[in-house]
Design goal:
- It comes from Campylobacter ureolyticus.
- This is Phage neck terminator protein gp12-like domain-containing protein.
- InterPro entries: Gp12-like.
- Pfam families: Phage_tail_terminator_9.
- It is elongated and about 85 Å long.
- The chain contains 2 helices and 8 strands; from the N terminus they run βββααβββββ.
- A hairpin with a 4-residue loop joins strand 2 and strand 3.
- The chain has one domain.
- It is mainly beta and 143 residues long.
- Strands 1, 2, 3, 4, 5 and 8 form a 6-stranded mixed sheet that branches. A two-stranded antiparallel ribbon has the order 6-7.
Length: 143
């Protein structure tokens, strides 16, 4: 997704410009759903962890609900799916769109939100060198 940089900012960014709409993206949870251990012939341990991350996408400003709706549709485009595959990610689910518009004083602030669950794998290789030689070991018994 090629969104303009000035329209996307970190969830906890301190710079705000209320005159233009913007999107924030934040990782809400990241949990392990499975793991696997392998030991290879060349003394390497491979640990693979399958994980799921829940990502919250919030839109603020004029037409935020329409913007999130369009974004929701783009999640199922072949371009987006191929982009995820290129980054070793997969789309697990997309939440319903939530209209979070607030009435503030005599006006309202348009807000919309959806959550996306993505799956990915972490793989770590650790060398497990064999002990080839030991010195003599003496065992002393206390009598």
């Amino acid at each position: 997704m090629n969104l303009p940089n000035e329209r996307v900012r970190e969830e906890f960014s301190k710079s705000l410009n209320d005159k233009t709409g913007f999107i924030t993206v934040a990782v809400l949870t990241d949990r392990q759903i499975g793991r696997e251990y392998k030991f290879t012939q060349n003394e390497v341990e491979i640990i693979t962890s399958t994980r799921e991350a829940t990502i919250s996408i919030n839109a603020f400003g004029k037409n935020s609900l329409a913007l999130i709706g369009k974004l929701n549709t783009l999640f199922y485009s072949s371009f987006f799916i191929q982009s995820l595959k290129g980054k070793n990610l997969s789309l697990v689910s997309v939440s319903p769109i939530r209209n979070l518009t607030l009435g503030i004083g005599g006006a309202s602030e348009e807000r919309a939100n959806l959550d996306v669950v993505m799956s990915y794998n972490n793989r770590v290789e650790v060398s497990q060198n064999e002990i080839r030689k030991t010195d003599d070991i003496f065992i002393r018994k206390n009598r």
